[in-house]
């Protein structure tokens, strides 16, 4: 069997840029991941020196884990579903409540090949970014491709948008 490559030069460069931005502001990052399965945490921790700016990562793939580990309300999950901006927001807030990071990004989605619906097809991914004490920014995107492509696009989108938000906060 071939080895799964989870990082490449462009992800490595993106991680370095995230680390530099966090370091310049003297803040730390945590992640709360579902469909990416810890891929974002893996990408950022492959950067040498990331222990100075990466606090921790939560991988909460199941709804039960989202509830237990991040305090996501069962009502939010029942009303909006696991793949929603409301759930992504609750995941980010829960991560902030359970760690010492200054900023959190969260991601939850349907990577496929199954699990999609008419309202939320495969490739639907919801995100949230939140600074401690601040308002969350949320977004939902629809990515094309197979499971690996949807997950990779989710990693890139989450980190690029984190960079944009860090730049606007300077």
Account of the 3D structure:
The protein is of the alpha/beta class. The chain has a single domain, classed as Alpha-Beta Complex (Maf protein). The chain is built from six helices and five strands, in the order αβαβαααβββα. Strands 2-1-3-4-5 form a five-stranded mixed beta sheet, with helices on both faces. Helix 1 packs parallel to helix 6. The radius of gyration is 15 Å and the shape is globular. The mean pLDDT is 95.
Summarize the structure.
The protein is of the alpha/beta class. It has six helices and five strands; from the N terminus they run αβαβαααβββα.
Distinctive features:
alpha/beta, five-stranded mixed β-sheet, 170 residues, 44% helix, globular, Maf protein
- Judged by helices, strands and strand pairing, the structural class is alpha/beta
CATH superfamily: CinA-like
CATH topology grouping: Maf protein
Q: What is the ordering of alpha helices and beta strands? A: HEHEHHHEEEH
List the total number of helices: 6
Class, according to the CATH hierarchy?
A: Alpha Beta
First CA to last CA: what distance?
A: 46 Å
Q: Main sheet: which strands, in order across? A: 2-1-3-4-5
Query: What oligomeric state best describes the polypeptide chains here?
Result: single chain
**How large is the share of residues in beta strands?**
15-25%
Record the SSE blueprint.
Layout: H1 9-25, E1 29-33, H2 39-45, E2 54-59, H3 63-70, H4 74-80, H5 85-97, E3 103-109, E4 124-131, E5 137-142, H6 147-169
Parallel strand pairs: 1-2, 1-3
Antiparallel strand pairs: 3-4, 4-5
